[in-house]
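ok so for the tutorial part 2 we go from a plain amino acid sequence to predicted structure tokens. step 1 is just haveing the sequence, like this:
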Amino acid sequence: MANVSVFNMEGKEVGTMELNDAVFGVEVNEHLVHMAVVAQLANKRQGTQKAKTRSEVSGGGKKPWRQKGTGHARQGSTRAPQWKGGGVVFAPTPRDYTIRLNKKEKRAALKSALTSRVNENKFVVVDELKFDEIKTKSFKAVMDNLKVSKALVVLDTNDQNTVLSARNLPEVKTSLVNTINVYDILKYNTVVATKAAVASIEEVYA
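step 2 — the prediction. this is what the tokens look like for a chain of 206 residues:
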């Protein structure tokens, strides 16, 4: 089992913690991690582009002129693509970009991402994160004490003082144990987790 140092909010080491190899010591599967990131980004896309075809444009029910004898080319509708106000030939339609991974693939990708952070010494464990008031300056001081800048902070409970204190820091994101994902773990340079959050992660994913 991997051993990591546990720090307090002042940045001082106050102990060590053993990490469960079933979550933080798996073989890193880069292909699954890539699939998980691609799926997450694809699932964010709305796919709401839309233009009307000739069958959807309003009007155009009457034939503009008779078929023969006018000297004009034959026309069936003023909503054909060559007419002003006509429909678009191959119009874009709303599209579903969803990519689905099964549960085992999602879990394996998440474990791989967490393991890679531990292997790179970018996984920091804090004994607790508690603030008496909502103050961004206080949270920034904790990040400075831990020598961390761009970080994903994982909490076991939705503590409003902590979450709101971190909200105004552009390079910090707070997340609960049940909302962590592969993209965020890789996007931020360091994962900062409380001891309770680490225990919850091991309980959920081991």
